[in-house]
Amino acid sequence: MKAEELVPVLGAHPFLVELPAAHLERLAEGARVLSFPERAFLLREGGEADTLYLLTHGRVVLEIHRPGRDPVQVESLSGGDILGLHWLFPPRRWVLDARAATPVRAVGLDAAHVRACSDADPALGYAVSQRLLRQLYARLERVRLQRLDVYRAEP
Length: 155
Fold this sequence. Notes:
The chain has four helices and eight strands; from the N terminus they run ααββββββββαα. The strands form two sheets. It has a four-stranded antiparallel sheet. Strands 2-7-4-5 form a four-stranded antiparallel sheet, with no helix packed on it. The protein has helices at 3-12, 21-28, 111-120, 122-150; strands at residues 31-36, 41-43, 51-57, 59-66, 69-78, 82-83, 97-100, 104-110. It is of the alpha+beta class. The longest helix has 29 residues, at 122-150.
């Protein structure tokens, strides 16, 4: 799919909704449509963190590897969510596995391209940063609520 064809796809994703067209066009230059069959890994712990995934369809489970034991599922993501934040800062390595629980479609944004665009255009960088911070805050809130449930005192 050509970059200009990806602009409306990017603009429709909740992560990028209301981003100015010029910013969408810049991001589309480093975007590609991806498909993963059920059980395929989108990313693996220790691998190079080089993509921001905008999930459009399907469900992805995030798992933490435990040597000699089954992995622990820590979260589930679906269409409209984003996947992959470790590309932001060195050492830029994934710290968990992400596996397709169903067939998954996503738009992959090349992380180096997003960083370069953000550096070259502070308004774009600010807009992306604000959206990433909202995502991080929402995830921290989910973790907080999960911990409350796990450690809830019985009456």
